[in-house]
Design brief:
250 residues; Rossmann fold; 2 domains; six-stranded mixed sheet; 9 helices
Length: 250
């Protein structure tokens, strides 16, 4: 089936025309629509206090996303917690680490980052096993990090500081799209919350990351594109390779 209309379950890039998705639009004459399938909602300080997590008891913080960074410093502000200058920060990626500049003087802090993967982050953390780690996260989160920390006997505590909720997609006609692109298991949950009678039919489905791919198949859906791969590091690259392969079949 010819792919013409694609729904990407993420916010639209700031400069769409200059982004990889903009290139896809031009190369294949596509209509690509961006729509957040999930909404992030911060947990108020009064509710956070019920978990009895004292932020100042910890000497290091692990960040797996920018959302975690934003809500960690939000909760600190709401609770009037002054984060000490000697706090260490461990981030899943370089971009997340640099995002810390929004809240701290980056060059004066002890900031460590991995190369976008959990195993590399584990090696970094193991070099600092004497620290007490805090893991700010959502109520819906990947289990790789807690599992890795427990396997390596790292002293850590999860801090649920925000919720991942399904966005309201009632204004969307999901059947008009030839491809749906997902980046988290929460996106799949949102799909069925908004469209409980959804049937895939001839719609192609793309998933980024193994946990998202598993959520697709666990939902009884057929997975068309899986990224990243050896030949496609990003979702736009994976989609482009797929479209080129489909064109050759004709």
């Amino acid at each position: 089936m010819k792919i013409k209309n694609i729904l990407v379950s993420q916010p639209q890039p700031a400069e769409l025309e200059k982004s990889p998705y903009g290139d896809l639009t031009k190369k294949f004459n596509l209509n690509i629509v961006f729509r957040k399938f999930i909404t992030i909602e911060g947990i108020p300080a009064k509710d956070f206090r019920k978990d009895r997590v004292n932020i100042l008891d910890y000497s290091a913080v692990i960040f797996t996303s920018r959302n975690a960074v934003d809500h960690f410093f939000r909760i600190c502000k709401e609770m009037r917690v002054d984060v000490p200058d000697n706090m260490k920060y461990f981030s899943i990626s370089e971009s997340t680490a640099y995002y810390l500049q929004k809240y701290v003087q980056y060059r004066k802090r002890k900031v460590f980052h991995s190369k976008e993967n959990f195993s590399n982050l584990a090696e970094l953390i193991k070099k600092h096993k004497t620290e007490k780690f805090l893991l700010p996260c959502s109520d819906v989160h990947k289990q790789e990090i807690p599992k890795m920390l427990e396997e390596n006997k790292i002293n850590y505590k999860k801090a649920i500081i925000y919720k991942t909720l399904a966005s309201d997609l009632s204004d969307i006609d999901i059947t008009k799209y030839d491809m749906l692109v997902f980046f988290s298991p929460s996106g799949i949950k949102s799909l069925y919350k908004n469209f409980p009678d959804f049937t895939q039919s001839s719609i192609s489905i793309a998933a980024f990351g193994p946990t998202t791919a598993k959520a697709v198949t666990d939902a009884g859906l057929s997975l068309t594109i899986s990224a990243p791969s050896k030949t496609a590091a990003s979702m736009p690259m994976a989609i482009e390779q797929y479209l080129h392969a489909e064109m050759k079949k004709k």
